[in-house]
Amino acid sequence: MGKKTARSKMPRKISPVVRREILTLAEQLLQKCTVPPNTIKEDWEQFLEIYQLVQNIIKKESAYLFSPPSRDQVAVSAFESWAKGKNITSRKVKITDCGSSGYGLEATEDIQIDELFLSVPTNTMMTTETAKKSSLGWLIEVDPLLQNMPNVTLALHLLCERFSSSSPWLPYINILPASYSTPLYFTPDEFELLMGDPAYDEALKQYRHIARQYAYFYKLFHTATDVKGILFLKENFSFEAYRWAVSAVMTRQNTIPSADGSQLISALIPMWDMCNHINGKISTEFNVHRNCSECSALKHFKRGEQVFIFYGARTNTEFLIHSGFVWRNNIYDTVPIKLGISKSDPLSGEKSALLKKLGVMVQGMFHVENGEEPIPPKLLAFLRVFSMDIDAVQMWLACANPGLLKQTDTQLDVEVFSRAWTFIETRLALLLRSYPSSLENDRKTLDETAGLTSNAKLAIELTAGHKEILVNAQAYAIKQRSLLLHAGATNVGATCVGATDLLSPEENGIGKEVEPTGGATCVGGGATDLQSPEENGIGKEVEPTDGAIEGVASRLLDRTAGGAVNAPSAEEEEEEVSDAASSGEAMATEPPEGV
C-alpha cells in the first residue's frame, strides 16, 4: 500500500507514570475550573492558575506529538478530488491561497449576483448524527455532557476521525487550519489587552469552560474500564488536540435539518466552510428537496476575485470569541451596557409599569450601537424613564402615545430628557475610563505593529473599535443635550394625548421586518433557512463534575447489557461555550483564513 504520509502518522504512546501525573493535574484543573470566582480580581487570579495548570499538562503531553493538519497544496488537491467524487458541486470557484487571509474561494469566471456556485450534499458532512453512528455513538448515549452539547459531540467526533487512518473524512480534515486565533490560543499578556472590555469576561469564561471540558474527558477516559471503540481516542487525547478540535468546530459548524426533519443538528460542511466573510446578505440555504446546502453569490464577483459570504449580523466580540477575527468598521458591532431601575427607587413601580408598557426591560443588558445614531430606541426610552420625576412618570403613564419616548426627535420635557442625556454621557465616560489604555494609545500601537503578535493585534483592534463606539456615543449625547436645551419646552399634554399619527413605522407595523426562522420555507426554492445554535439551545454547557464522571464510568461497563441507560443529572450553565459561529438567520462560516 506504500509508505504512510505524515498526516496519517499516529502519536506515540505515553508512559503509564506520566499518564498518572497528567490525570492528577487534570483532577486539579477540573476542581479549579468548577469553583466560580466572586470578583474581577479573583477571576483573573483563577485564570492564571488555570492557565499554568494547562501549560504543565501540555508539557507532559508533549509525548503525544499531536499533529494538526498540514494544509498544503497536496492536501488541497486531494480534497478537491475527494469533493468531486462525493458530488460536491462547485461552479466557477476554486480553492486558492488568499495571502494574509489564508485559503479561500476564488472566482474562475464572473459570477452574477444570486447565481448558485456551490452545492454540498448532506452525506459529505460531519454531523452529530454521523457521530452517533460512529465508534463514539455508545459514549454519546451515556454521557450527559455529550447529550446536552452537540458542539462538544462534534468536536470529539472530529478528533476520532482525525486519529483514524481509515476515516472517510480525512481529505476534508487535512485541509482544516492547524491552529486558530480564538482566545483559546491567547497568552496571559494577550488576555490583559482585553481588560476593561466586555469581551474580556467572555474570553476568560471560554478558556475556563474548554479547560474544564478537557479535564472532564481526560478523567473519564482514564478512569473508565470499558472504552472499546475509542481506545485510540483515550491514548491520543490531549489538551492541544481538544483545543484544536473545539476551535475547528466553533469557527466552522452550522446547523442543518436532521434526516427526519424533526430538528436542526450541528454540522461541518466541506468546501462551503472555505468561504470568508464580507458584509452583505445571507446567501446560503438548505434545500430540503435535494438534501444539500446551496450557496449563491451575495453580489457580482469578477473572475480572479475572492468569493465571500456574509456570516450574519454579529458583533466583533462574537467574531473574536467564536471565530477568531475582528471585522474593521463592523456596522453590527455594539458595546453592551448594563442598566436597571433600582428597587430602592421610590418610583420603581411606576417606572417599571411605564417601561413594560413600552416593551422595554426594567433591567438588563442594553447596547450602544455603531453608527450615526448610537442610542437605539429602547435604550433611549429607558434613559428617559430612568430620569423621570413623579409628575413626568404619571403624565407618560396616562399618555395615549408613550412610544414617543423611543424617538430621538421627541423633545417634550427639556429637564427630564436633558438629565437622560447627562446620565448616559457620564456612564459612557465611566466605561471609557475602565480601559487601561486610551483610544489614542491603541491607534498608535496599531500603527507601530513591530513586535506585536497577531493575537495582540486582534485584541487591540477589538478594544479600539469599542472605544470608538463609546466616544462617538458620548459626542452624540452631548450634541443631543445641546439641541434639546436650545429647542426649549413643548406642551407635553397637547402633543401626547391622542397623537397616534406620530407613531413610528415600527409601532404601526409599517415596514416591520419579519425575522426568518429555522422552520421558514423559502418561497419557490423548497429551501429552509437555517437557525443559529443559540436559537436551538446549542452552546449551553453542562457542568462536568466528579459525580458525573463516576456515573458515566460506571455505565460504560453496561453498554452491551441491553438495559436502559439513565444519564446522571448535571447542572446546566447559560454560557455560550465553544459555540458555533453561525448566523441568527441562516448559515455562516469560518473567519478569514489564516485564523
Give the arrangement of secondary structure elements.
Layout: H1 16-34, H2 40-60, H3 73-85, E1 89-90, E2 93-97, E3 103-107, E4 116-121, E5 126-127, H4 128-132, H5 137-142, H6 144-148, H7 150-163, H8 170-173, H9 188-192, H10 198-223, H11 231-236, H12 239-252, E6 254-257, E7 264-268, E8 276-277, E9 284-287, E10 292-296, E11 306-309, H13 316-323, E12 334-340, H14 348-358, E13 363-369, H15 377-386, H16 390-398, H17 414-433, H18 439-447, H19 454-487, H20 492-496, E14 527-528, E15 541-542, H21 546-556, E16 572-573
Parallel strand pairs: 8-11
Antiparallel strand pairs: 1-4, 2-3, 3-11, 4-10, 5-7, 6-7, 9-10, 9-14, 12-13, 15-16
Helix pairs in contact: 1-2, 1-10, 2-10, 7-12, 10-13, 10-21, 14-15, 14-16, 15-17, 17-19, 18-19
Walkthrough of the structure:
By secondary structure, the protein is α+β, with helices and mostly antiparallel strands. The radius of gyration is 26 Å and the shape is globular. β9 and β10 form a beta hairpin. A five-stranded antiparallel sheet has the order 1-4-10-9-14, with no helix packed on it. A four-stranded mixed sheet has the order 2-3-11-8, with no helix packed on it. The protein has a three-stranded antiparallel sheet with strand order 5-7-6. The N terminus and C terminus are likely disordered. The longest helix is centred in the C-terminal third of the chain and has 34 residues.
